[in-house]
Write a structure and sequence with these properties.
α5 runs antiparallel to α6 and α10 packs antiparallel against α11. 61% of the residues lie in helices and 9% in strands. By secondary structure, the protein is of the alpha+beta class. The chain is built from 13 helices and four strands.
């Protein structure tokens, strides 16, 4: 791996000397990552969450309805709006539901894009809009053959919930890793979490749960008010069942997002060292301070220092490397933190 490290160092040195090329490289990388994020989300949505009636008919001959999981964020809101429209007598949108989701997803994200533009950052807003646009495009143009010939988990609701959560969480997590988002509730969650200095996933779960409740209510009303669109049996049980499986989907999605998005995860370092210069090295290497406590080793009886420092999870690897470079004999413990109160510097989103 030495050749890889050497190539990485040479590339970083070149980019430092050529800031314009570095900027364009970052933007191009983000652009392709946004496209990949949107493609994963679109495929996961079409394969596991809300497949088209064409796919369902290939999986179940003679099927006339789609048992959909309720997606989170703007796509889930789009599903709820479609169910609201279908409450009106004579309205039937099943054949054009994919197109409706693509359009509504983009429209719902417009006010959220404005929130990101004015309250988070313009670059964040632009790349989020790119992600949203790609999802609307991919959701519309992905051929049904790429779905029903590759995946067939329609009758296994638990597997659909798990794989759907992984796909959506991976999509959101990839975007959040580079300081952007996949739109929808991610924007609101990130806006709140930046101010509360906590994880993003929990806020997504809360907002998405509200969406599920609206979807179920609209579906229940539609069973009685619109016989054209509703199931002939007027049985709300399948909708409630899918809503319960959706909770599994939300849990998996939230866990995947929190694993990938380490920016707002905090950890406490407890460092035991005899090197009095280590605290100064740490506060010069990171935008965080630390607390130093005099202590004594129980076995040796020698004086040493206990250094307490809170860092972001993404900074842990760098911190460990610096500590070991200064004091090879330092003893380090790492503790995950749920919340931090007080002034803790978080690099703002560009």
């Amino acid at each position: 791996m030495k050749w890889f490290t050497k190539a990485e160092n040479e590339t970083n040195s070149f980019l430092i000397d050529h800031p314009r090329i570095k900027t364009w490289s970052i933007w191009i990388g983000k652009f392709f990552l946004e496209a990949l994020s949107a493609l994963i989300f679109a495929y996961g949505f079409r394969a596991f969450m809300s497949p088209s009636i064409t796919c369902v008919q290939h999986w179940q001959e003679g099927a006339t309805t789609v048992n959909a999981l309720i997606s989170g964020g703007a796509s889930g809101m789009a599903q709820a709006i479609i169910k609201f429209i279908e409450m009106f007598p004579g309205v039937h949108l099943l054949e054009i539901e994919t197109t409706m989701v693509s359009i509504l997803y983009f429209v719902i994200n417009i006010p959220l894009f404005l929130l990101a533009w004015f309250k988070i950052s313009r670059q964040f807003a632009v790349f989020t809009l790119i992600n949203v646009g790609f999802f609307s495009l991919f959701n519309q143009v992905l051929p049904d053959e790429w779905i029903y010939n590759v995946v067939n988990l329609y009758e296994d609701h638990l597997a659909r919930a798990i794989f759907g959560g992984i796909a959506t969480g991976l999509s959101s997590g990839l975007a959040l890793m580079v300081g952007t988002s996949s739109g929808g509730v991610d924007i609101i969650s990130l806006y709140i979490s930046e101010r509360k200095s906590s994880s993003v996933g929990q806020y997504s779960v809360i907002a998405n749960s509200i969406t599920v409740c609206c979807y179920v209510i609209f579906s229940a009303v539609g069973l009685n008010t619109n016989p054209v669109s509703a199931d002939a049996s007027k049985d709300i049980t399948p909708v409630v069942t899918m809503a319960l499986y959706t909770l599994v989907y939300f849990f998996v999605q939230g866990r995947v997002i929190d694993v990938l998005n380490t920016k707002n995860r905090k950890q406490e370092l407890q460092i035991f060292t005899t090197n009095e210069n280590l605290p100064l090295v740490l506060i010069r290497a990171f935008p965080h301070s630390c607390t130093v406590v005099d202590s004594k080793g129980a076995f040796t009886g020698r004086r040493n220092l206990m250094v307490y420092m809170v860092i972001s999870r993404s900074e842990k690897k760098k911190a460990i490397q610096i500590i070991k470079a200064v004091d090879k004999l330092a003893f380090i413990t790492v503790i995950d933190l749920n919340q931090v109160y007080g002034r803790f510097f978080i690099k703002p989103i560009e």
